Input
Amino acid sequence: WSSDVVLFRSYAGDLEAAEQTAREGIRVREALAAAQPTNANLRRSLMNAYLEMAYVFFHPAFLSLGDRQTAAVFHQEALAIAHELAASDPSNAMAQTDLALAEADACAALNESDPARGIEYCRDALALAARWPAQFTTEAMSAYMADGLHRLGRNSEALPALRSAIEICAGLAQHDPWGF
Output
């Protein structure tokens, strides 16, 4: 339930309340995960709580506090768990998807302060997406990659990544204009 409340409060513009709710969600999930450290569902729930908090601080598509540095801290917490869960079962599509999305989100958060590091997360996310193509559309990953490359002045590399993002969006819109 706290996930829905965090999103509702964020969308309503009450970011301070969203942050408080997210902090409480982390506190509860940390306690539950500590009590049952081998429970993958609880670990995934904790990972998602860290991501929710990161989104309150920064996400390029959502209203946020605009604090990329703090968001990156919570992304690192989420990434540690995502790596753990993905490594424990490499055939688990959900765990691989969670890892790729967490890496893409970390890329977006780091692009301003550390674009070289952000790009590496995007590369990892795109590599995972290539191994699990039915699970992903990669327009956001490609756009984040283009942003990081542009920030580093590597425009000749940024342009193909941006074109890829645009082509994917155009294809999605053409395939399902009302659902896109």
About this structure: Residues 146 and 162 are 5 Å apart (CA to CA). DSSP finds eight helices and no strands in the chain. The radius of gyration is 17 Å. The first helix runs from residue 2 to 11.
